[in-house]
Every structure is written in C-alpha cells, then in structure tokens.
Amino acid sequence: MSHNIEERVNGVFRRIFKNDSIQVNRTTTAQDIKGWDSITHLHIISGMEEEFSVEITGFEVMNMENVGDLLDLLSDKLAE
Amino acid sequence: MVFQSWNFILFLLVVVVATRWTLPQWRWLILLIASYFFYSLTGWIPLLLLIFSTLLTFQIGKWLGNEKDQKKRYRILVLSVFIQIFQLAVFKYMGFFESIFQLFSSWTGHHQHDAWTKLILPLGISFYTFQSMGYVFDVYYKIRKPELHLGHYSLYVSFFPQIQSGPIGRSKKILPQLSSIPTLSDDKLRYFTMLFVWGLMKKLVIADRLGNYVDPIYAHPQGQGAWVWSLTLVMYTFQLYTDFSAYSDMARAIAGFVGVEIPENFMYPYKANNITDFWRRWHLSLSGWLRDYIYTPVMFAFKKYKEGAIVLAIVITFLICGIWHGPKMTFVIFGLVQAILLLFEYFTKSIREKIQSKISENIYQRISIALTFLVISICFILFRAEDMKMVSSIGTEILNWDGMLLKQYVAEKNLSKLLGIATLILLFVVFEEKMEQTMKQDGLSRWIQMLIVSTLLILIGVTGVLGKEEFIYFQF
Fold first, then answer.
1. Measured between alpha carbons, how far is B132 from B54 in angstroms, rounded to an integer?
2. Which of A54, B175, B229, B284 has the smallest C-beta neighbourhood within 10 Å, fewest atoms?
3. What span, in angstroms and rounded, lies between the C-alpha atoms of A55 and B288?
4. Which residues from chain B sit within 8 angstroms of residue A45, using beta carbons?
C-alpha cells in the first residue's frame, strides 16, 4: 500500500517537473530538486489532491518538511 | 549604542567574559540581563513595551499548546496577531494614519492636533514583533512546541545583537540553543572576529563613504540631471547593501562571540538574475518570514483559484513587505512595484525560457544580472526618497541628459576621488564572495586569518569614514 503511494507520489513529481528521471524518497526536500519553489509547491500539492482525491489544507502544508511528511499525510488521509 | 562604538566594544567584552565564567545552562541569564540593559538605553517605555510583547506571546504560546480545539486555537492566534499589529500600528504607523486624516481634515476645514506623531518609535519594534509573532505562528502550526522557560523565551525576543535590526530569528533555530549555550571554540572565535572586522570595513570604508556622495544629491534632488542621478542610484544601491549586510555580519559575529548562532541575511543579492532571484538573496530573514507566514498560508488558503491564489499571495506579501519598512507611501509603492515585477516574471516565464534557449547561456546570464541590478537600483529610489514628491522630481531629472551637469559634478567632486569610489565598488564586487568563502573555510591557517584581520583593520584605519554612526536599517 505505502509502496504504491510512493510510486504515485513520484509520478506526480515527474509530471509537475516534466522530468521522468526524478526519484523522490522520504528525505527529499525542496533543496534537492531544481526548480522546486513555492509556486511549484502549490502545483505539487494540487497534483497530489487530484491524484489521491483528498484535500490538503494550508495548515497541513505548513508542517511538511520533506517528502516523508507528505507520504505520512497522504497515508493518514487515505486510511480515514 | 552602535556596534562600532567603543562603549559597545567595552559592553561586549564584559558580556563575553561574564558568559565564559558562567555555566552553559545559566548563560541565558547573563545574556538576558545584558539584553535588557542594552535595550533600556533606548528608554524605559520601549523596554516595558518589549517586556509586554514577550509576556503576551509567551502566554499565547502556552495557550496554543494546551488547546486542542482547532477553531479555538485559530481565535487565539488571531487575537495575538491583532494585539501585536495594534501595538506596532500605535507606535510606528500612527503618524502615517494621522497624515491621511490631516489630508481629509484640510479638505473639510477641521484642524487635527499632532499628538500621535510625538510618540516615540521604539528601536527595533518591527524586528522583535516579527520575531515573537513568528514564534506564535510556529506553535500554532505545530512546527515547534511552546517554550516553557520564560527566561529563555525573553532572551529569544530581546537578544541584544539582533534587537536593533535583526536578522529576524526563527524559534526553531534559536530557542533550542539558549538552554545550554556552548563555550566558544578558538576556531569560531577567529571566524567571528574576521566576520566582525569584515562588517566594520563594509560599513566604515564603503557604505559611509558612498553615503557622503549619495546624501547631498538626495538633499537637493533638483538640477542634478540624469548622469549624476545614474551615478547616485548605483552608489545608493551599493550603500544600502554594504550598510545593511555590514550590520548583519556584525550582529552574527557578536551573537557568535557569546555562543549563539543567528541566521545569515544576504546571499550576494546583486548576482541575482531576476527579481524573484533577488528576493531569495536579499534580507533573507525578512523574506523567509514573509514567505512562511504570509505568502504560503495565503496561497494555500486560496489554492482553488489556481493562478489567482499566486497573484493574491504575491500582492499581499509585498504590500506587507513595503509597509513593514515604515509609515510612508513610498514604501507602499515599493512593495506594489515589487509585486508587479514578480508577477511579470511569473507570467513571462515560458517566453523568457524560449529566449534563453536561443542565445548563449553566459550572455543571457550577464544581461539578466545587469538588467536586474538596473531595475533594483531604480526601485531603490522609492526606498531612499523622503516622499512621492521627491520620487517624481527625480523621475523628471532622469529625463534630462545634459552633459554639462555631469562635468560640473565631476569638477566639484574631483575625478580621482570618483574613480577611487568606482575602484572600491569594483574590488568589492570581484572579491566579496571569495573573501566570505575564504573566511568560512575549515582549517584556514592562523596566519591567513591574522592577515585578513590586520589588512581589514589597516584599510579601516587609513580609509575608513569615521563620525557617521547609525545604520540605515535602524529606522525600520
């Protein structure tokens, strides 16, 4: 299940950055991917919302430090 | 008490010695006493206001930590922000509101008294308000737990190296350092000494010298012509940067001397290749604060409007950025202009990328850096001018390309002195990054460190401009 989430999250990243070689992991942060700025962050979150049919609030976004936090949040939301 | 005064050096020596003689877990107390003493020199009312702000946000943090109901937590946050903004508005912006009231009253024939404008402006109020407000946001967003030690928190808000003009610290980085403040290692002592002297050199040799050329032109903006104004705009752009980055380097060094690490404030802003890039390099502690606590929450609150959310977030953020600098219309317009420029860059990104792909990367980068510098230099007119009337008269002057005015200026100022200034700026541009990176190197030989410090001190002794005291950012 979590492996599947990771793959789908990675797919969203590849789509947003238009780069098929991107491979994110739990420790990946905005510093690790060129072009991951605040506007791209908005596109990533919107992309995740569409992919997983969930809603991510601004409050939840503020707590994210890396892709691991995003994966945990998505897992929690999908388990609800 | 400014950093480059003998009184301050003496004060710092006493504090450094006292902290060394104290156990790491009690050093916060020495630093808190020193910080309150330092701030009390500006007056008792500002000190009481600082203590009020500290107690308020400390208590708010505890309430936010104890409250589980998200709606109640939100109300507590709004209350805290409202009180802090109100406090800032009363002491910093009332004159601005009054000038608007007076404008209306002059139309209606009513007379207003000027009691509000006589209120003192507490030093550093914008900085410590944002620093303590940042802590409240961090607790609200659960980025950190509430601080339970009032002494540590009071020091976080009032820490003397930062309180006058930042850098605005973040609770997650600074508060954990205060419970047990380490003894300074010899390596760090030498690094912070170099950093302090480097900042001193930037202030006394470059910034204050440039100020001697910039100030008279801004005092008499008319009849100078476009050539003189162009030179002045370039000089002010460097003056502002060297002055503020000098202060920031010295603040970091002073904090370092007493064992606390505070953030860097600049990342070579005039190497930015667009305005977006510039704001990622300029006044990092403020731009980071605005990004995390204004821009991101606004953008995500309105994310369903897609690009509308981005437009709204940029406009609100930069309006606040402008107003934060002071109660003047010039700052409001400055913020708006920045927002317009950023939005222009956002909406032309794909066109610019197409142009970039058609010409040499090197040439594109150089042209981009030069254009960004030009735009920033022009925008800084709004930053330096007293009011919009002055901005408009400078605008008129910039259309007058009369070469005679330049000849007169060169004759008056002395060509060799102007060439000296140009050389100084050029040397600074070429060597700044190299110098700062060298100072940061681990294992840098003591001889090189001594050479750096002694060369900088000789430069200050021989060519430093003495007598000017205040840093530009003290007014904010």
1. 7
2. A54
3. 26
4. 300, 303
pLDDT at residue number B111: 53
Residue A46 and residue B303: Cβ atoms within 8 Å? Answer: yes
B33-56 average pLDDT score: 95
C-alpha angle B349-B350-B352 in degrees, rounded to nearest 5: 65
Q: What is the DSSP string of B153-217?
A: HHHHHH-HHHHTT-----HHHHHHHHSSPPPPPHHHHHHHHHHHHHHHHIIIIIIHHHHHHHHHH
Q: Report yes or no: B3 and B247 within 8 Å, Cβ to Cβ.
A: yes
Contact B182, B351 (CB under 8 A): no
- Given a cut of 80, whether residue B208 has pLDDT beyond it is yes
User: Cα(B160)–Cα(B251) distance, rounded to whole angstroms?
Assistant: 9
ipTM computed for the complex:
0.86
pLDDT band at residue B465, thresholds of 50, 70 and 90?
confident
- Would you call A61 and B306 a contact, using CB atoms and an 8 Å cutoff? no
User: What would the two tokens of residue B343 be?
Assistant: 């939005």
Mean of the per-residue pLDDT values of chain B: 92
pLDDT at B104: 66
Query: B297 CA to chain A: closest CA distance, Å?
Result: 6
Binary contact (A42, B297; C-beta < 8 A)? no
Could B299 and A59 be called an inter-chain contact, meaning their C-beta atoms sit closer than 8 Å?
no
Say if the Cβ atoms of A62 and B297 lie within 8 Å: yes
The answer to whether residue B303 neighbours chain A at the CB level (below 8 Å) is yes
- The pLDDT of residue B291 is 94
Residue B405, CB half-sphere, CA atoms under 13 Å: how many? 18
Cα B5 to chain centroid distance, Å, stands at 21
End-to-end Cα separation, chain A, in angstroms: 14
In 3D space, the residue among B135, B129, B126, B125 whose CA is nearest the CA of residue B175 turns out to be B135
Give contacts of B 78-97 with A, CB under 8 A.
none
* Distance between CA atoms of residues B236 and B210, nearest Å: 7
Per-position b or e across B243-263, b if 16+ CB within 10 A of its CB: bbbbbbbbbbbbbbbbbbebb
The whole-number average pLDDT for the span B249-272 is: 96
- Which chain B residues touch A50 with a CB distance below 8 Å? none
* Residues of chain A positioned with their CB less than 8 A from the CB of B309: 42
**Those residues with Cβ within 8 angstroms of residue B192's Cβ, 6 or more apart along the chain or in another chain:** B184, B252, B253, B254, B256, B257
Q: From the list A39, A46, A59, which residue is nearest B141 (CB)?
A: A59
Lowest mean pLDDT among A65-79, B264-278, B355-369, B401-415: B401-415
